[in-house]
Amino acid sequence: MVEHSAPAGSAVVAGHLCLDILPGLEHLSRGQFQTVFHPGHLIEVGPAVFATGGPVSNTGLALHRLGIPTQLMGKIGADVFGQAVSDRVRAYSPRLAAGMVVNAEATTSYTVIINPPGVDRIFLHHPGANDTFCADDVALDLVAPADLFHFGYPPLMRRMYSAGGAELAELFRRVKATGVTTSLDMAFPDPASPAGRADWPAILRAALPYVDVFMPSFEETLFMLRRAAFAQLQTAGGALLDHATPELLADLSAELLDLGAGIVGLKLGERGLYLRTGSASRLKRAGRALRAADGWAQRELWAPCFQVDVAGTTGSGDATIAGFLSALLRGFAPEAAVTAAVAVGACNVEAVDALSGLRSWEATLARVAGGWARRPLSVDAPGWRWEPTPGLWVGAARPTTSAPTART
């Protein structure tokens, strides 16, 4: 992956922020996990790791580590957990915390993450102050000088999904008016919760005309746009990601582009990252970060993951987004951007927490250039071809309908 080294643009990362508590479970094998976790059983664990979590921390601090000038905008309570979050953010750089909001009447969000090797994570989550986050909590004077604004996890933030997503759409409308490139990430809600029962097609219809880069997971997208198909595939057996066919990915991404997004990246876990981009006219409205838009319009790419020994998957999606946005802020082409995304994501899973596995931008690119092996990925569909030099599958993206223009 060879690209020019343009000066990196700057970013603001806002949204969900919490304290992550990770009990040490490295000594458990997959078989042990299935047998020891049951009621009434005392389980001996190792020392706990305390870290900040959520996209404000995971994506924001990853961007910082990758050399992107970044500011964080999260909301915490005036409590012990809030102080712990603030201390950890400031330990990276006092400047990072310039946009933090402290609400004395709220509790700080926290998540207990059950994350043994080889087993998908279990989250015990308290939303806390995140439920009160609103458009007024975003300091536009700090956003206006930046090149990119990234927001994450509205399904875990009550005001963002209530009332048909009016607050989420208003937040992005205000931010988009500053001229920055806007980016949005999602989270998978509890299906039985108010967030799980929200009208997500309507919420996305309201917000996506103001979103330039939309990077949810395949599971989140299927749940939000194809609830019946999601339920049917869950009962069909096997992993849900096994059903992520090129045809279904093209269908889902086309709908998201038609709802207004400029660029859609669907995170596919160990199957990599699928990218679909909109028309040239839509990308011309994509803000300051997409300053080198040539070659971005009407693209369809699928990047396989790199081979690593997985220690944990906490924050892997957030790290993948950070890799993609870092490349975007440096003016990289889409092939290099998706490669950087899966490279940063692969570094992430080599550690149990969200950040300690990450390398510098230069070291990450050097690892790719050194012949880092990819995981096998076969895309058997008409119009797709394998390009060995970037190590990507390239599709023949079809034009979508005209995306809605953001209302001012």
What secondary-structure arrangement, pairings included, does this model have?
Layout: E1 11-15, E2 18-24, H1 30-36, E3 46-53, H2 55-65, E4 70-73, E5 75-77, H3 80-92, E6 101-103, E7 110-114, E8 122-126, H4 140-143, E9 148-152, H5 158-161, H6 166-176, E10 181-185, H7 200-207, E11 213-214, H8 218-225, H9 227-234, H10 246-258, E12 263-267, E13 273-277, H11 280-283, E14 300-303, H12 316-329, H13 334-348, H14 361-369, E15 385-387, E16 392-394
Parallel strand pairs: 1-4, 1-9, 2-7, 5-6, 9-10, 10-11, 11-12
Antiparallel strand pairs: 2-3, 7-8, 12-13, 13-14, 14-16, 15-16
What does this protein look like?
- With 408 residues, the protein is an alpha/beta fold.
- It has one domain (11-17, 55-107, 128-394): Ribokinase (UDP-N-acetylmuramoyl-L-alanine:D-glutamate ligase, 3-Layer(aba) Sandwich).
- It contains 14 helices and 16 strands.
- It has helices at 30-36, 55-65, 80-92, 140-143, 158-161, 166-176, 200-207, 218-225, 227-234, 246-258, 280-283, 316-329, 334-348, 361-369; strands at residues 11-15, 18-24, 46-53, 70-73, 75-77, 101-103, 110-114, 122-126, 148-152, 181-185, 213-214, 263-267, 273-277, 300-303, 385-387, 392-394.
- The protein has a ten-stranded mixed sheet with strand order 4-1-9-10-11-12-13-14-16-15, sandwiched between helices.
- Strand 15 (385-387) and strand 16 (392-394) form a beta hairpin.
- Helix 2 (55-65) crosses helix 12 (316-329), helix 8 packs across helix 9 (227-234) and helix 12 (316-329) runs antiparallel to helix 13 (334-348).
- The longest helix has 15 residues, at 334-348.
- The two termini are 39 Å apart.
- 51% of the residues are buried.
- The mean pLDDT is 92.
